[in-house]
Amino acid sequence: MELSPGAGLAMNTKKGIPLLEVQGLKKHFFPQMKFLEEQAPPVRAVDGISFTLQAGETLGLVGESGCGKSTAARTLLRLIEPTSGQVNFCGTNLFDLKETALRSLRREMQIIFQDPYSSVNPARRIGHILQEPFEIHGCRDKKENAEKATQLLERVGLTSGHFNRYPHELSGGQLQRVGIARAIALNPKLVVADEPVSALDVSIQAQIINLLLDLKEKLDISYLFISHDMGVVEYFCDRVAVMYLGKIVEIAHSEQIYNSPMHPYTTALLNAIPSFEPGRIKQKTSIRGDIPDPAILQRGCAFHSRCPIKEKKCEDDIPALEEITPGHHVACFFK
């Protein structure tokens, strides 16, 4: 029995419209005030990012821990509510939808979480966890749901023997496969993979990445792939967006990013990748210090306090994200 495809608003798409279009997305967190205390400045976790994702494409969103990658992913899926901006999924503005319409559309948008253990209910068996998506979206036939759950286990490289096990009886790699199975249960068009391999051993990482690639080909899935591992992103992604302090500083096709980076932050990230290729020459760019406090509003370029090539202009003005060559956008005055 084949898994039935989702039937949401996203199926009514027009030719040429991106699968996902993010425009000026912001998410600011306001600290809780104490009595008679002035409102503290907000934490600008995501501060006006824009990008598109085409059907069948994999876009990598990369940057250091704390740059706002995971917050951006959860905000664009409306797992947390945005401060401002717009997210269009197949031409439909997600932020305009009421709860009922949004729930219907969630069949087409799913997420794989970073920690496979905290993303499942430890008190429920694996089979029950995989049947939940079908139950939530209206399929009450227990026998049919159980058959679909077994199919999902087999599709991600597990067996029917895992059906009645509890999460603590599985390894991290096996449990992440369960998380992937749950994400693809309703045949989504978009899967957001939030650091899906960072908690796994290196040997298991390769297996999970290859599984995701295989599912992309067989199920026609598009991925927004969030990671801080530039080596994994190079292997997995078609395009790459580099994020720093809540902003995108460079976005381009993977080959352009890895062969001709134009932002000093991107270059520094690439320099951190261990290289065993004699022919690959790294640019001598290094950065010092930590990411500044996102609650403190800075003048000028967000990266200027750590940039090795900064000038006075960088401290006063904010560079716009501009297209330098076809498909290659950079936010830097010295591109």
Describe the overall structure.
With 335 residues, the protein is α/β, with parallel strands linked by helices. The protein has a domain at 19-28 and 41-122 and 189-275 and 282-295: 3-Layer(aba) Sandwich (Rossmann fold), CATH 3.40.50.300. Helix content is 29%, strand content 21%. The chain has ten helices and twelve strands. The strands form two sheets. An eight-stranded mixed beta sheet has the order 6-7-8-3-9-10-12-11, sandwiched between helices. The chain has a four-stranded antiparallel beta sheet with strand order 2-1-4-5, covered by helices on one side. Helix 6 links the parallel strand 7 and strand 8. Helix 3 packs across helix 4, helix 4 (142-155) crosses helix 5 (172-184) and helix 5 packs parallel to helix 6 (202-219). The radius of gyration is 21 Å and the shape is globular. It starts with 19 loop residues before the first strand and ends in a 5-residue tail after the last strand. Mean pLDDT is 89; it is low at 1-13.
- Structural class per helix/strand content? alpha/beta
Shape: globular
Strand order of the largest sheet: 6-7-8-3-9-10-12-11
Q: What's the β-strand tally?
A: 12
CATH superfamily assignment of the domain at 19-28 and 41-122 and 189-275 and 282-295? P-loop containing nucleotide triphosphate hydrolases
* Arithmetic mean of pLDDT: 89
Largest sheet: 8 strands, mixed
Give the N-to-C terminal Cα separation: 54 Å
